[in-house]
């Protein structure tokens, strides 16, 4: 039914789908990649040859069905080709985030029993060479950017082009070997091992079969957001994240093109050039974009600031009525059209969103405030919700978007709420367990089928799923009142002065506190505009004017929650939360338990009658010397009277 309605490919494995679409679209552009300032186009035919020769090259190196191969890289065609090439030979692809440390790579490659590691460049190759002695199964390291690697002589190293040459030699020995290997594949075969972010312990390797991956995307995203061959998808979110695989599969199913930016630093410029019709950002990316927009407005002339503040509310009101299904009055509708044409549309065009028909966010709930900001500008942003274990269970449809929900339950999925309030998910096809850890899969599945998401939520009267917080993070105060930390954190991060935040409390605590990481760029500009001197991030974070600025932001959020959920005290951390220090996962989620333990003395100080705490700072110098010193941190009481920040410009 779906295939007939939307003209999607029919194959039961990813490589079979690719073969089918190659036959259909041969000379049509499939991939675009910008290198050295120029966009290069790759057809389905050229991609077919790359994947075929790469796949046969892997066979020449000894890859057999069921073998694992890791890929460490950015959003590049070579990553995409490697993944399908591995799967074409019956292998299993294991994505690793490009900012992973050597120890993290050692765990993931070792646990997955990887025989081959694709490493993008010298930086990634150096990480792998550093730990190769701890990976007894490792046979080869394949790299695709040779800069800096010309004189490396390690026998494990294989250049990407050399791998393709091996594949061409193998092709000459036996014709149609590539197609024969693909046809041997079955839907139940494992194609990906996707490691969870590990917020509560070591990552678990979720085994993803072809049939699960295809079914989840085709009957989920493919239903609520049908794609066509004319769509242009921007590939920007990390390819090690299962969500990006979902969008790649959607492009394969529909015949749409995949567009890779030159580098993360140039993505905004590249978006303007390529004009994507579909893309996905993480909540952090959306928040950063909104924050940078506010920063630019703040830095603009007084007239431009006045125009924005005078006209933006029309967009907010229009979007608010739209989400409630209320038809705007004639005056508002006409005013919005004018404001959109002369104010909002130019902003969208500058971002490169002029042709966007569908913008997505996932991985964590986007704050309603941020959601409303982009909907006010006329950007069709929508939320998709699921887990690696049960993908794409809920999403917004174009006609039914509610800012504070995760969307409606999709046709292929089922959702129910446990007696404890936990969101449980299942679908026609789900993951195949955790690699080498079947006992953990048993713990994760209720009745062998319902996946325990660990999220607290409920289904409202409109059939939308509403997220509250992580179950383990739902807190009770000494009074018995409950509150949702992520709800508070999400609204605080709407402030373009706050980059990250973690609220804290507990059953023995009588009130809520917060650890805040300021947005250095935006707060710095605010300070410069108000002639406030500072030297470093730490110095700026503890400035009295900045503390009062953040106090106002916290106080404003307090107006949206019950009095029991008020944040009464906070501190500005003298540094950002850092994944390299274990404070954030690679998907930028706060490791709450780790952070609470690390900053235990600071948190305790906020619950004592103290005005200041101290924080240990470790410094490693370029010559290898290490040093440690303490920095004083001021504890701010949100209920105190307003300071002289009101005299400064906002």
Shape: globular
The CATH class designation of the domain at 2-277 is Alpha Beta
Structural class call reads alpha/beta
Q: Strand sequence of the main sheet, in spatial order? A: 2-1-11-10-12-13-14-15-16
Give the biggest sheet.
Answer: 9 strands, mixed
Number of strands: 28
Oligomer: single chain
Structural notes for this entry:
There is one protein chain. The protein is an alpha/beta fold and 650 residues long. Among the domains are: 2-277, ANL, N-terminal domain (Rossmann fold), CATH 3.40.50.12780; 474-647, GMP Synthetase, Chain A, domain 3 (2-Layer Sandwich). The protein contains 22 helices and 28 strands. A nine-stranded mixed beta sheet has the order 2-1-11-10-12-13-14-15-16, sandwiched between helices. Helix 2 (14-25) packs parallel to helix 10. It is globular. The model is unreliable at 641-647 (pLDDT under 50).
């Amino acid at each position: 039914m779906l295939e007939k309605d939307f003209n999607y490919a029919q194959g039961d494995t990813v490589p079979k789908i690719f073969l089918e679409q190659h036959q259909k679209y041969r000379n049509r552009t499939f991939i675009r990649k910008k290198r050295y300032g120029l966009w290069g186009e790759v057809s389905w035919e050229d991609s077919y040859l790359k994947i075929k020769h790469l796949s046969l090259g892997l066979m020449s190196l000894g890859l057999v069905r069921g073998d694992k191969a890791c890929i460490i890289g950015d959003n590049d065609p070579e990553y995409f080709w490697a993944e399908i090439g591995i799967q074409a030979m019956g292998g299993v692809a294991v994505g690793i985030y490009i900012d992973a440390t050597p120890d993290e790579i050692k765990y993931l490659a070792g646990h997955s029993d990887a025989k081959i590691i694709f490493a993008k460049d010298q930086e990634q190759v150096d990480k792998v060479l550093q730990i190769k002695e701890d990976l007894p199964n490792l046979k080869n390291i394949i790299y695709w950017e040779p800069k800096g690697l010309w004189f490396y002589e390690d026998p494990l190293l294989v250049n990407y082009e050399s791998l393709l040459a091996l594949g061409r030699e193998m092709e000459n020995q036996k014709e149609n070997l590539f197609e024969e290997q693909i046809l041997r594949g079955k839907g139940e075969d494992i194609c990906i091992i996707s490691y969870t972010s590990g917020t509560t312990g070591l990552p678990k390797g979720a085994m993803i079969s072809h049939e699960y991956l295809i079914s989840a995307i085709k009957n989920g995203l493919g239903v609520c957001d049908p794609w066509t061959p004319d769509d242009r998808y921007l590939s920007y979110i990390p390819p090690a994240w299962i969500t990006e695989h979902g969008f790649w599969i959607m492009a394969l199913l529909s015949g749409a093109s995949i567009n890779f930016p030159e580098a993360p630093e140039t993505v905004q410029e590249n978006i303007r050039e390529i004009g994507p019709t579909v893309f996905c950002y993480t909540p952090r990316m959306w928040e950063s974009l909104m924050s940078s927009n506010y920063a630019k407005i703040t830095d603009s002339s007084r007239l431009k600031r006045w125009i924005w503040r005078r006209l933006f509310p029309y967009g907010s009101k229009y979007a608010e009525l739209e989400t409630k299904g209320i038809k705007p009055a004639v005056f508002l509708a006409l005013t919005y059209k004018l404001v959109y044409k002369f104010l909002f549309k130019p902003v969208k065009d500058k971002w490169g969103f002029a042709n966007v028909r569908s913008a997505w966010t996932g991985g964590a709930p986007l704050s309603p405030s941020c959601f409303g900001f982009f909907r006010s500008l006329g950007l069709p942003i929508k939320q998709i919700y699921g887990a690696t274990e049960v993908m794409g269970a809920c999403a917004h449809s174009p006609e039914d978007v509610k800012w504070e929900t995760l969307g409606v339950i999709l046709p292929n999925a089922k959702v129910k709420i446990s007696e404890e309030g936990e969101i449980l998910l299942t679908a026609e096809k789900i993951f195949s367990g955790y690699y080498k850890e079947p006992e953990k899969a048993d713990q994760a599945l209720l009745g062998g089928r319902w996946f325990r998401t660990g999220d607290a939520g409920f289904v409202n009267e409109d059939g939308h799923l509403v997220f509250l917080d992580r179950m383990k993070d739902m807190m009770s105060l000494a009074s018995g009142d409950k509150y949702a930390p992520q709800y508070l954190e999400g609204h605080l991060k709407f402030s373009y002065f706050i980059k990250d935040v973690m609220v804290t409390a507990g059953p023995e605590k009588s009130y809520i506190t917060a650890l805040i990481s300021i947005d250095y760029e935006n707060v710095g500009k605010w300070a410069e505009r108000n002639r406030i001197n500072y030297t470093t991030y730490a110095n700026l974070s503890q400035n009295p004017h900045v503390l009062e600025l953040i106090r106002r932001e916290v106080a404003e959020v307090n107006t949206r929650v019950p009095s029991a959920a008020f944040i009464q005290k906070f501190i500005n951390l003298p540094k950002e939360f850092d994944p390299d220090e274990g404070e954030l996962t690679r998907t930028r989620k706060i490791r709450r338990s780790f952070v609470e333990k690390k900053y235990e003395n600071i948190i305790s100080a906020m619950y004592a009658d103290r005005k200041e705490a101290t924080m240990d700072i470790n410094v490693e110098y370029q010559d290898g010397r290490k040093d440690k010193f303490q920095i004083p941190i001021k504890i701010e009481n949100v209920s105190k009277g307003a300071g002289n920040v009101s005299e400064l410009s906002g």
